[in-house]
Structure formats: C-alpha cells, structure tokens
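step 4 of 6: structure.
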Amino acid sequence: MNFDELIDRRGTNSNKWDDMEAKFGVSAEDGLAMWVADTDFRAPDCIQNALRKWTERAIYGYQGNDAAYRRAVVWWMQNRHGWDVHPDWIFSVHGLVNGTGMCIDAFTKPGDGVILFTPVYHAFARVIRASERDLIECPLVQQDGQYRMDFEAYEAQMKGHERMIILCSPHNPSGRIWSREELEELAEFARRHDMIIVSDEIHHDITFPGAQHTVMAKLGDISDRLVTMTSSTKTFNIAGAHTGQVIIGDPDLRARFAARYQALGISPNAPGILMTTAAFSPEGAAWVDKLVTYLDGNRQIFEAGMNAIPGVSAMHIQSTYLAWINFEDTGMESREVISRIEKGARIAASHGASFGAGGETFMRFNLGTRRAVVEEAVTRLQSAFSDLQ
Ligand SMILES: Cc1ncc(COP(=O)(O)O)c(C=O)c1O
C-alpha cells in the first residue's frame, strides 16, 4: 500500500471532488477537497481481490447465507475492540444514516425528544427532523481544548418527552474519544430519564497512539437500553457500498428493531456484505494499522500548521481523520473565515455551523488524503491568514 500515491478522483462521480464546485465554489482544477468524510486512498487488496472474484463470475443474484459476514464482524469486534458480539445480534443496514433512521423509527414515535450532543455529525439532526421527532441539542462544553459533556446543564434541559440519545463515539467532528467515566455518566443519565442510547461507533477503528476507545457495550449493565452501530466503510474507504451494522444485545430491543427491519423490507446488499467480510480480516487489520500511522503523521502536520496561525487553534484529535479547527480568536466573522478558505486558499472544507449549535466558529478539514495535499493545505491556509502572522 502506498498512501502517497496520487489517484485523480476527478470525473469519477466522486461526491467529494466532483460536487465541490457546485457546493463551495471551489473548482477541482486547482482546489483541494477536504470536506465529505471519505478518504483518497485505495481500498486494501483483500477487498479488491474479493470484488474481482465476484465480478469475474458476473453473477449478481440474490445472496443466501450470510454466516461468513457475521463471523467476520464478530471476529473484528473481538480482535480489534475486545467486545464479544453474538452473530444473531447483527443487522446489516444500508449505512449508518439509514441505521439512525431505523433506530428512530423502531424505538421512538413522532414528537418524542431525541438528544444530540452538539456540535455533531450533521446527518443525525437531518434524520431526526425529517422523522418529526423533537431535536434536543445538548451543547458540549470546551474545557482544556477538548469537548466535555455537562450533565448538570442537560438535566435542566429535560422536559420528560426525551426517549433517545444519539451518541457519536468517537466524536465527529472533534475526534474526541469519550472516557469510560464519561460513558458511565452518560449511561446513568439515560437510565434516569429512561432513554435508549444509540452509540454510533463508525470511527472507532481510527484511534491514535495514547488514546483508548471504550466500546459502549462493554460497560456493565447498559445492554437493556443500548444499540451500537459500526461499519467498515469509513475505515476502509468503501462508503459507496452503503452498508453498516446495527448490533443489539438486548432481546426485547432486538425484536422491536427486527419488526421494523421486516416491515420496511430491508435486506443486506451483496457488495456491502462482500467488502465488509473481506475487510474485517487479519489482512484488513494489518492495513488499518498502517493507515492509522499515516494519518497520525497527517494530523500532526496539520495541527501544528494551524496552531501556528495566531487566533487559530486545532482541537487535538484522538480519533478520525477529521480536523476541527477553531477560528474564533481571529475575531473574524465566519463569513470572512469561509471566504478566505474557499476563495483565498481554494479549499473545500465543512462549515462548522452545519454541525449544530457551538460549531459556528469552526471549520472541519478532512485529512484522509495524501501527505502532500495536507502540506499544501497548510501552506495555503497560512498564506490566506498571513496578515495575522
Ligand atoms: C458519525 C458518523 N455516522 C455515520 C456516518 C455516515 O455513515 P454511512 O455512510 O454509513 O451512512 C458518518 C459519515 O461521516 C459519520 O461521521
């Protein structure tokens, strides 16, 4: 594998590269795509070989037994996360945005409150609103350059109709890994208000040295109100496969989810199952270890480069390839910041406000790209804000 290999994604119907001009006014001719969360890396050989075998046969009929896929998920969770999953707990969904919608549908009703700790991955809010549930934004607070949860404040916000918490763990956009103590406090909060926790752990494979992710399901007696969502797609850059796992240990919650799964006519998609089975393997694991080392280099260069600009600060990411950069102390309006980034630096990055309350002064940069692109982005951004030096 060579993460430095230049792979031109332009003209391939790539959302990240081919839609950035329409969305941000940044042309792919000279612009850098650092927004939507996929990477510019080729998927590992284990996935490619599995796909090659499939396409060589050119038979794309209905799939039967998915035992190998379930075994692969169980193996991955055991070996990479020390979590024992039973094969029957796994539902394959069409990505975790779909999984989020399914959970909302299965476990809440219109008008119920669904809590997000904001700022957070924007699709959650979109799905909650579209499902006609009441979106409750519980703001994260900044402490020592990191986000923390503030349960005292959240208690005061509760109205009694809250039924679900959607947790992003590790956290997108800040790369924060929640500590075991924080997760325990969260579990306690959910218990007090009789809420279900949906823990989206899509980013849990990419954790940097010194940080230890805790799978929520490994906490003691939380399983009666917990749903975990995982996926191979962020890690292995196969998001187009639109596949993910909803894992439910509790029999009652599982039956409720299974009923909605059945009612909506959902069944796994063949390429997603094939790619995930190939990815969640020893070969896939070895590739991920190398990927994490490479991304660790990217984050160090980018964070140092951003922190060198007066008034700009990078939240130190413990996980994900998404850098969360605060421009608040530049004193500029966010319109001015965005204009300097898009028109000046020619970079398409995600606007902080799209992640909900508290994100307004931030921009999110996707570092899942070649080192040379990260270095170029640092140079361009330092130049776009050079009057602050
Ligand atoms: C926390 C989180 N959940 C879900 C998704 C999207 O998942 P999917 O492509 O499986 O729908 C993303 C994508 O960035 C994400 O960051």
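step 5 of 6: annotate
 - The pocket of pyridoxal-5'-phosphate is lined by residues 37, 95-97, 121, 168, 172, 200, 202, 231, 233, 239, 244 (CB under 6 Å).
 - The two ends are 38 Å apart (CA to CA).
step 6 of 6: archive
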